[in-house]
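Below sits my pick:
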Amino acid sequence: MIVVVATDEEYKLAKKRFKNKIIIKTGVGGVNVIRKLRKIPKWIKILNFGYVGSNNIPVGTEVYVGESRLYHPNAIYNEVEYTLDKESTIKCFTSSDFVLNTDLKKPCVFDMELAYICALGFKRVRSIKIVSDNLSLKEYEKSVK
């Protein structure tokens, strides 16, 4: 299994939690994910770990993501949905930007990498996310320090 994180803060946290595992830091966003992971065999187990914003899940809550898809609220498009954990009802919406508001009402989380990891064709992807903020960049910056 490879643990995939995006930031330095996530890497430090993953090193403590997932001892003796390979951890890859991609950098933030889809282009960085593609650049770092495109040559890895698709049969390898991937655990995406890191911080996310949420519309209404309390800060500090750890969630297991059940489904992931891209998030582009200003376009009407039936986006591909990737199932990760059939036991979880939490959806992770992957955006190109930090999400500061949303019309979505059901509890969900927002990141900038997970849907790209899934879209690369990995067959066994899981994701554990820690809510760092409720759609506030200032709250995120305070939370991850």
